[in-house]
Structure formats: C-alpha cells, structure tokens
Amino acid sequence: MAITTTRSLSVTPVTRRSATPINPLRSSSLSYLLTRPFGSNLTLKVPSFRVSASSMSSIHAPESASRTSFLDRRESGFLHFVKYHGLGNDFILVDNRNSTEPRISPEQAAKLCDRNFGIGADGVIFAMPGVNGTDYTMRIFNSDGSEPEMCGNGVRCFARFIAELENLNGKQSFTVHTGAGLIVPEIQDDGKVKVDMGEPILKASDVPTSLSANKDQSVVKSELDVDGVKWNVTCVSMGNPHCVTFGTKEGQNLKVDKLNLSEIGPKFEHHSVFPARTNTEFVEIISPSQLKMRVWERGAGATLACGTGACAIVVAAVLEGHAERRCTVDLPGGPLDIEWKEEDNHVYMTGPAEVVFYGSVLLN
Length: 364
What we know:
Layout: E1 3-7, E2 35-46, E3 49-58, E4 78-86, E5 89-95, H1 106-113, E6 123-129, E7 136-142, H2 152-166, E8 172-173, E9 176-178, E10 181-187, E11 193-196, E12 222-226, E13 229-237, E14 241-248, H3 261-269, E15 279-287, E16 290-297, E17 301-303, H4 307-320, E18 326-331, E19 334-340, E20 347-351, E21 354-363
Parallel strand pairs: 1-3, 5-6, 7-9, 14-15, 16-18
Antiparallel strand pairs: 1-21, 2-3, 4-5, 4-21, 6-7, 8-10, 9-10, 10-11, 11-20, 12-13, 13-14, 15-16, 16-17, 18-19, 19-20
C-alpha cells in the first residue's frame, strides 16, 4: 500500500503550559497548517512509500475563522494527526475514538515513523474508545511496527491530546485502558501531566525474565553476562519489561555519557534471558535523590526519554539501596519527577508533554 504525505515544519515548536486547547487556525507558530507552496517540490521515493515536501510560505487565517479543529476534518483517504513529544520522546497521535481497530497497520506506522522518509517519531499512538468502564483506550505501535504494552512518555502526550480533542481546560484526569492495565493521567495546573503508573511488577516470571530470582521472587542486583561482560542488573516491569543496571560487576559508578549505546543496547534487548525482549536502562547515581539515565528501548532503540524506564530505575535504585523513593531522573531530553509511594506501592511520574506540529497523511 502506498502512502503519500505532505509535510512542512514550523521553525519554532509550540510549547503548551496549560491544558487550554490550541486553535491551529489562529496560532502563528502553527501557521504551516495553512500554507501555500512557493518554491520547488522535492519527492523522495522508497518501495511502497512516497514523501513529498514543499517549500512553504505562511497564510494567516482571518480572526473570524471557526474553531472547527484541524482534527475534525474527515476527508476520505487522509489521516490527520498531531505530533507531540515528552522530553524529546516523540509520537504521532491519531484520533481513533470511533473505532476499536487502529486506523493504520503496524507496517504503515513504521513507515510514518521513519525519520528520513516519513514524519519521524518513536511511535504512533491511537486514542480509542474505553473498555471495561475506562474513559479511553491507548494503543501504540513502535517505530519498528511492534506493539508495546504501554509507554510512559506516550501516555502523557495521550492525556494532552485528549484534552485537545475534548476541549478540556484546567486540571483534568481520566482513566485509560492500556496493555499494561489501568493508567490514570492527571493534567496539572502548570500543564505538566502526573500519571499513576500503578504497582511495579517484580516477580521474575512476570517481568518476564528467565534469570533466577535472588530476592524473594525478584531479580535484584543479579549477574548477567552480556557478550563476555558481567553486569549487575535488576529486573522490573511497569507493564512492560525493563532491565536496569548501575554498572558492571567489577566497575565503579557507571558514567552513562561514555556508553556506546547503539552497540551495547541491542545485546541487552535481544538477550536470551528476556523472552519478550527488554527495555534497558543504564543509570548513573548523582545523589540519593537524583539519577541520570540513558535508555535503549525495545522496538525503538536509543530515545531521548522513557517514562516507564524512569519509573523502573527508581524502583531498582530503592531495591538496591542507592536512592530514596522520590527522585529527579535526568534523561537526555530533560528531567522527570518519579515517586514510588510506600503507602500504596504505586509509582507516580510527573513531566511535560508538548505539541510539535499538526499534519496530514494521504493513505493510498
């Protein structure tokens, strides 16, 4: 199936500090939504996929323009989307509330996520009808077409997207069904999103990992041989599997900026002890309340941020005795506030989610 997409990008990305919906017809930073080509066209081709990009000049909509959302358009054959990012972990958000089946296939999603020949993203997220009494369902296809159970940065973007679709203002919360179970995001007064990520799963067989449990039924600071190097690892699931390491068995405190992530990451992801593959977090201890991490995500590779990974490393740091239950986690894309509450055993994540641009894709 051929896909044709026309894309133009604003030089200045949009920053949203509240849940107030953006009117794409009246926002100057989103003026590329209403554009007129004036320069040469560039067409790039790959098998079954074509991207056309045009040089554009802005046309500003009149002040009397209707609030009719860009996303309310229903032209046949077009997929309208909004691109969001959570600390640089970027996603294509699709309004799928009228169907329980994703509007595009995993293969199409992978092509759209391509950063050279597509829109460019770490995944495609679908806002779908709720099930089992929840308000909404969230599904996601990774950039390789695989489907993870959940995504922490993605669910924050999902919450802001829902606020846009439903024209919600101020502090809002709703229930979201995911492959990892019930997730409850709450948009804060400052525009950040706080998410109840639920309880961490520590039982080895449920993570899942075939590493032998060494603390109750959990894998905590266990030895893992990766290509001849012995690493200390703790395995945690936040609804999706994570392997957390603070360093090798013989090494000092890990310096994450020195890692060759593209070399070591895939070896963890595809290690035989992780039957469902794994996300891997490499963690540097700054202080008991501050951790620094780099992540190799299952199905997406190196990303600027991983919300579930940030949650997993705080759980692992507490279990290994490195950190307090509330930490700032520094990721390449910026910081997240993570708290593993002792009272209810739930992990809470707070961080931003912001609009990048609106766009349309023609599905042939």
